[in-house]
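**Protein record**
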Amino acid sequence: MSERDNMDLTPEERQLQDAVRGLGEVRADDAFREKLRQQFMSGEIDAEGPSTESAGEPVAEDNIVEMPRRRHGGRWGALIAVAAALAIIFLNQGAATWELQNVRGQGTLAINGQEVSATDRDAVAALIAPQMHLVAPEGVELDVVLGKVMVVGVAGPVDAVMPDLPEGDPRVFQVTVNTGEFRIKTGPDFPGSQALLLTTEGRVEITGTSVAVFKNADLTCVCVLEGTALIGKDGDNLDAIPAGQRKVMFADGSDPLITTIEPGHKHGLLEFEAFNQGIFK
C-alpha cells in the first residue's frame, strides 16, 4: 500500500479518488489545452473551493449554517490545485496512443494471439495496443498512427512486435521485425525521440525519416526514402544511409551491401505515404 493510499480520507474523498483512478484516456484538442492553461495561470481556476459569496454579494447571516471544523480543512483546496496542475501537465504531454489508420486486403490477422478478419475494421481497431505482437498474411497491409509522432505500417506476410509508448527524454520506440516488411514515417511531434528497429541481422536507428525494413530468413534490407537512417550490425557498427539508398545485411555473415533503394520497396513506401497523406495536419 502506498503513502497516498494511507491518507486519512473521508468517504467522499475516497469516492473521488476511486473515480479518478477509473477514468479512461481523455484526448483534448490544442484549443482546449491552451484555454485551460490560460485559465490556470490567470487564476480563473479557483483552487480555494466554493466561496461564501455569489456574484460579489455577501450571503445573509441568517442563511449561514455553521459547519463542524475538520482537521483536514485545507486539503480539499490543495487537492483541487494539484489536480489542476496535473491536468495542465497531462494535456501538454498529450494523450496520444496507437490507433488504427488503415487496413487493406483480405485474410486473418493475429494480434497478441487473437485472430480477427482484416475486413472487420472495428474488431481490428479494438485490438490495437502498444507493443502488440502482429502476424498478418500475404496480401494484408495495416497502418497504425501515434498522434503526430509517427505512422507505421506492415505488409504481409509479416511477424513483428509494434512499438510501445515509452517515457523519458529521449523517447525510444522499439520495434522487432521477425519477418516481412515494416514501414515508418515520422511526424512533426517526433523530434527528440528515436525509433529503434531490430532484426536478427542488425538494427536501424531513426531520428526522423521515412524507411522500409524488409526481413526474411536470409537478410535484412533497409530502404531509406527520406532523411537519413543509421543502419548496422550493432550500435558500434552503424552506417548513415541517406535518402535513395539501402543497406542489406546478410544472415550468413557476408559483408553488407550499400546500394540504391530497391524499386519494389520504394514503390511500397510511396503507396504507404499516399494512403496516409495529410495524416499529421
Summary: The longest helix spans residues 75-93. Helices lie at 11-21, 30-42, 75-93, 121-127, 263-275.
